[in-house]
Amino acid sequence: MSGLHIVVCGSIVPDPLQTLEPVTTPAGPGLKNEMMLPAILDPWAGHALFEAANLAKSVAGSKVYLVSLGPKAKLQQVMMTIGQKAPFELVVADGPASGFTDAAEVAAELAAAIEAIPGLDKSQLLVFGGWQSASRGAGATLQMLGERLGITDQFQGVDEIKMQADGSFTVLERIEGGSYQLSSCAGTPAVLGWATGNLPEPPNNPQIGMANMRLIMPALQKAKPAKVSTGEVSFVAVELPKQVRETRVVKDMALEEMAKEIVDWIRG
Amino acid sequence: METILYLAHTEEDGSLSKAALEVVSAAKDLASGLSGSLAIGLVGRDVQAAADALAGCGAATIYGASGEAFAVSRYSTDVAALQALCQAAKPTLVISVADSRLSRAMPGVAQRLGGRIDTHLTGLSVKDGQPLATRWYYRQRMVADFNRPQRPWFLTVDAGCFAAYAGAPGQAQVQAVTPVLPVERTKVLGIQSPAADQQTIRPDAQVLFVTGAGWTKKQADGATHVPEAAALILGFLNGTKASLGSSKSLVDMGGEGESVLPFLTHLHQVGQTGSTPRHPKGLATCCHGEEPHVVGWRFITERRAVNLDAGCGWARGKADVLYVTDAFALMKRVNELLG
């Protein structure tokens, strides 16, 4: 089997522990102090990256690219950490990473960035990404990207890929009710939208970080501007959920009474 | 005038799922509100039974793509079938349920037909003569109402947002379409599910039982009690037929070599990188104040929590009742009462 060319698509999202507040901007909805919020690599895209690195290790001659559409200043910060976890070559499209951008426009920019990767062998291509982002959460970008690249073997909610010696592979996809669908595919090219996979987050490795940084900084410097917007969507309202519950704190009740209350509530 | 095409796939037995029937109601309401026409597009091994079930829904035409190639959930054949159905119906609005099969395929169809797609809608209405979509952003942290001018506009709707269509069945005339099938490179080998008595993810359960990392921490005696925790959790699930959810921290412990509850997987995870399930009631135990847990609970109607911190940031203002006590002792007694 020839080496794989694994392109992982993933951008940044606000750290999940941050409080988010929507605001109106000239370009559409956004987040208050968006450029000031601490960012992380989108969690499911992160799983995709770690799975890609693991897969590349097992197939000689493989290479991993991380294609990221986001503001390059924020990407640079996030790459300081992510760059130490897995070997990859970064490709940057400099544009907004907002959850309110249109998935079709994002797919178009990602396709253009991937098509422009020098030496990319599309016959050996696996396109990875998170099956949803933690921002838009549409689960639509990878499929449209795959269509643009002419790839019609696509899998979503992937937790496992097993490569065979002949280049074919099997995939486990999440379906309803805690079950998996097992499929086999004849080989590359394919698109895989990852759920959490099975790998823990790799520890930081300074040697990997130094090797990556030689390519990350030039990639950031030569990032092309990406034209993505909200895609003509008219947002009538964007707001935080208003409901705040009046929490009844029960701490002086006897255990027996608490238990009865819970059972009555469940049966009620 | 808008032409609305409702798309669905049949289940193994030829029927439509409850979630799919919910979106029939959404499509009917949309067609009525927009004074538009409604068409149905069905994919599956044999779509006649599903078509008959929708015979009285008011659709002008029912299209079908049927055959062995469409008996299974596979991107290449599903996209080909849905594309053909759309080309036959020439819709301006296309609506389907956001289940795993159609969530995988619909964006590809939108791309092929030059349309745009918005997914995981939780609401769909008509305002000022235009469709108005509602969905959440940033993992259920903020909600938006919007519309868009592009057509065809593809919409997928999450389960649990509309009442299921329950019209009388009839004898439907299905107009067959013949998709252009690609070379088949992907084969569906089967479905892997836990045995029925070991399945702890139950989407239709009345109660979601969420377990947090506290279950595996040292207790008052200075020791962990993981086997006891596992027995209590499973006892509650068996006694109530509740669905099991977990915080990320608890699931991740397995990968970090710590004591772990043996029946938990990433599939149980709720929150930022997990699911956001819909259940009428939710009981959280030993979870603590991170926003991801709130995210995971967005669509739980009645919420109660058990933990040792009366000031727990996630419970205050988010749960209806917070029981401040030892979850081990409380759940043991709850299980005894449940019998």
Describe how the helices and strands are arranged.
The complex is a heterodimer of chains A (268) and B (339).
Chain A: E1 5-9, E2 12-14, E3 22-25, E4 28-31, E5 39-41, H1 43-58, E6 63-70, H2 72-82, E7 89-94, H3 103-115, E8 125-130, H4 141-148, E9 154-163, E10 169-174, E11 180-185, E12 190-194, H5 206-221, E13 224-225, E14 234-239, E15 248-250, H6 255-267
Parallel strand pairs in A: 1-6, 1-8, 6-7, 7-13, 8-12, 9-12
Antiparallel strand pairs in A: 2-5, 3-4, 9-10, 10-11
Chain B: E1 3-9, H1 18-34, E2 37-44, H2 48-53, E3 61-66, H3 75-89, E4 93-97, H4 100-112, E5 116-121, E6 123-127, E7 130-137, E8 142-147, E9 153-157, E10 174-176, E11 186-192, E12 207-211, H5 226-240, E13 243-246, H6 248-252, E14 279-285, H7 291-296, E15 300-307, E16 321-324, H8 327-338
Helix pairs in contact in B: 3-4, 5-8
Description:
The complex is a heterodimer of chains A (268) and B (339). Chain A has a nine-stranded mixed sheet, sandwiched between helices. A two-stranded antiparallel sheet of chain A has the order 2-5. A two-stranded antiparallel sheet of chain A has the order 3-4. Chain A has helices at 43-58, 72-82, 103-115, 141-148, 206-221, 255-267, and strands at residues 5-9, 12-14, 22-25, 28-31, 39-41, 63-70, 89-94, 125-130, 154-163, 169-174, 180-185, 190-194, 224-225, 234-239, 248-250. Chain A has one domain: Rossmann fold (3-Layer(aba) Sandwich), CATH 3.40.50. Chain A is α/β, with parallel strands linked by helices and 268 residues long. The radius of gyration of chain A is 21 Å and the shape is globular. In chain A, helix 2 packs antiparallel against helix 5 (206-221) and helix 3 (103-115) packs across helix 4 (141-148). Chain B has 339 residues and is an alpha/beta fold. Chain B has two domains: 3-176, HUPs (Rossmann fold), CATH 3.40.50; 196-338, 3-Layer(aba) Sandwich (Rossmann fold). Helices cover 26% and strands 28% of the residues of chain B. Chain B contains eight helices and 16 strands. In chain B, the strands form three sheets. A seven-stranded parallel sheet of chain B has the order 5-9-4-1-2-3-10, sandwiched between helices. In chain B, strands 13-12-14-15-16 form a five-stranded parallel sheet. A three-stranded antiparallel sheet of chain B has the order 6-7-8. In chain B, a hairpin with a 4-residue loop joins strand 7 (130-137) and strand 8 (142-147). The mean pLDDT of chain B is 93. Strand 15 (248-250) of chain A pairs parallel with strand 16 of chain B, so a sheet runs across the interface.
